[in-house]
TrEMBL record:
GO terms for biological process: methylation. CDD domains: AdoMet_MTases. One of its GO terms (molecular function) is methyltransferase activity. Keywords: Methyltransferase, Transferase. It comes from the Bacteria. Signal peptide: none annotated. Residues 22-116 form the Methyltransferase domain. This is Methyltransferase type 11. It comes from Streptomyces azureus.
Length: 144
C-alpha cells in the first residue's frame, strides 16, 4: 500500500471495500491490515484468487473479513457478496488492460454507496500511453 493511496482514501477503519482486479490480493489484504472491516478482492484469474484466499487464511482473516471471488470485472456487481461498499478500489495500472473503461467506470460506480469514493491513480504516460486521455475522461465520472 502506497502512502499516496492511504492519504487519498483516509481512515478505512470499520469500512467495507472491494478491490477490483486484485490479482493475488496483496493490495486487498493491505486494506484489511489498515483496519477495513470487510474487504473483497475480485479477479478473473482462478489461480490468482486461490493464492489470495490462501494468503488471507495465512493471515488469520476469515471470509467474513477478507473474501476473494473469481469473475470478470464487468460482472462485479453480481459476483461480489454485498450490493454496495463504502469505497471501491483498484490497483495502479489495472485500467490499462481493459477494452472498455467506460463500462468499468459504470461497474465501479454501481458498487459504491452514495457519497463513497472510487479513488484512482492514473499511471504515467510511459506505463499506459494509449489509454492516458481515455482514463482522464472517466476519472471525472468517479469523483463527486
Amino acid at each position: 500500500m502506497r502512502d499516496l493511496e492511504l492519504a487519498e482514501v483516509g481512515d478505512v477503519s470499520g469500512r467495507s471495500l472491494p478491490r477490483l482486479q486484485c490479482h493475488i490480493g496483496l493490495g486487498t489484504l493491505s486494506w484489511a491490515r489498515h483496519g477495513a472491516a470487510r474487504v473483497v478482492g475480485l479477479d478473473f484469474s482462478a489461480p490468482a484468487v486461490d493464492i489470495a484466499r490462501g494468503l488471507a487464511r495465512d493471515l488469520g482473516l476469515g471470509r467474513d473479513r477478507a473474501a476473494f471471488v473469481g469473475a470478470e470485472v464487468y460482472d462485479a456487481a453480481t459476483a461480489v457478496p454485498d450490493p454496495s461498499y463504502d469505497i471501491v478500489c483498484t490497483g495502479v495500472g489495472a485500467l490499462c488492460r481493459l477494452p472498455d473503461i467506460g463500462r468499468w467506470a459504470e461497474t465501479a460506480a454501481s458498487l459504491v454507496a452514495p457519497g463513497g469514493p472510487v479513488p484512482l491513480r492514473v499511471p504515467s504516460a510511459h506505463r499506459c500511453p494509449r489509454r492516458r486521455d481515455r482514463l482522464a475522461d472517466h476519472v471525472r465520472l468517479l469523483r463527486p
